[in-house]
Amino acid sequence: MNFGRITACASAVLLMAAVFVFSALAQSAAPANLLKKGLKLLWVGIGKDDFLLNSSRSAVDLLKKRGFAPISRETEGGHTWINWRNYLNEFAPQLFQTKTAM
Questions:
Q1: Does the predicted TM-score (pTM) go above 0.70?
Q2: Which of 39, 56, 62, 81 is at 20 to 30 A from 68, Cα to Cα?
């Protein structure tokens, strides 16, 4: 199994989704409450050496300005499989909690 290729594909998919969501959010005149409807958790994890660090920080700032309450984690390291695994370990259980983060 080629984890590098899997990570690159997952990164591309997540980045495309993030660009779509954040572009719509930045240009939307809709109140944040309508955009948040049904949203239970907004979680962002990034390594301090990740090439996407500045973009991630900008996205989190934009979300906060629009009234969202993202959970943001900056950890040691970069855009690596081990960080993805650690983030998944932290993030996945939160998907099954009944308490909302927004």
A1: no
A2: 81
